[in-house]
Amino acid sequence: MAGREDGNRQRAAQAGTDPAWAEELLEHLRPAGRDVRRVVAWLAGTVGATVALQDAAGNLIAGNRLPLDEGLVADITAGRIASAAWESRERHLRLVRVEHPSHACVLAVSRQDPFDRRSSGVVTHTAQVIELLLTASESTAAGHRLRRATSDLRLAILQLLMVEDTIAARRVAAGLWPGLLDAETACVYVVESAPDMRDRVAEECLDSTREDALVVRCPAMDGHVIVVGPRETTGDALRSLVGRHPDLFLGGSVRQSLAQTATAYGQAVSALAVAHFRPDKTAVYAERTHPERLMDPVALRGWTSRVLRPLDTLPHHTRAELLATTRLGLEFTAVNAAKVLGVSRNTVRARMERVEALLGTDFADLTVRAVVHLALNTRIGLTDAPSDGTGEPELRLADLLSGPAVRTWGQDLLGRLDADARNPRRTLRTWIAVGGNAERAAQALGVHAQTVREHVRSAEPVLERQLLAAGTDLYEVVLAHLTVGDLDLPVLRSPA
């Protein structure tokens, strides 16, 4: 009787709930433990079996492959039967259907000992857990794919805006975000964070702006999120976001037309550098006096038309592509311009080399880059129709830069450096003359290259412009040197 009681007690324990294996199985549903392969390995160890999880095509998803009857597997995956059992002297096999969002799978468990109530229960419950994990995984993967596609679409819209194709940008945006780009103008903002925080920051930007702005993970800078905000409320929302996070910085542009998104982006990056020194970690691009605003607008437009006339013989789409690429290539490095445009850096360089050839000049010369940059920025306000030059004033670049207002501007700007006994003005002039190369400037001045870099860097806060990075700030300083005669005017094939 005692033996029978022990046997009954053992059978009761096997048939009843075993908290140990149940708790272990539930642990696999925790976020940190959601792995189908681990669950299958756990099942194999718990019931002392060889376990395989495979789909209808026979692909092994997890576990170790087992010899299974293809017809039986087909019946289970097709839903004709939910489970099956097979026994021989050498092994005992259980097959259980596992639902999957896109296709059914089979969980096969093979062991030497017969399946008792405990092992059968473990197999059944494990199949249910695997179903949950596969469903969650499929949903998560679908969510990731959707977010990735949406993110790629936002980037495509930004790239269209960067090359001034606002019509196509609006057409692409209209499908998912109706009305987003209906406005004619927008401000561009750049939110800077640590690269590993950027995805979370991008999501918070979307939440803060209530998707009334175009939010894009910058393809060139890992820690930057670009926000194109047509609405007036975008700036306040982003400033509030930056205020809540100690490690975020925000730079913003002035309001620009959508066709000038590239210009606005450059302004936002420039303001971002200033934001690092502000208590509130935010800055908006300062609307300062730009040299082109001090020139005769009619004469400036006429000069621009003549400078860019060699491109007028090209087909319209080719001309627009070359102009947009060159404009971005002058603002940023070829690598970063390529990432923003979604093309290879070799494509950017090839397009810029073609423009160099047409203009008969060399973009390695900073004075050339500054002058062509001036022409390209002026061209934004011109009609797309090529000009024949009729009625345009025959002013050259020297005439534009010799006006009293622009000369006074250049003298005042560079005069800020005269108080420094180290003579950074001479260093800066020499550095520009050799294409921004510190080593070559150091050889010309008879100093160390690091000294050149320190002088140029110390001039940045005095001039309130970034110099070590190519872009509008540097080109304005180059133009200032040209206006006061500290540098020779560049030579272009066209009558500049």
Automatic annotation (TrEMBL):
Gene3D superfamilies cross-referenced by the UniProt entry: PucR C-terminal helix-turn-helix domain
Source superkingdom: Bacteria
A Pfam family it matches: HTH_30
Domain PucR C-terminal helix-turn-helix: 335-377, 426-468
The protein, known as: Helix-turn-helix domain-containing protein
Organism: Streptomyces tibetensis
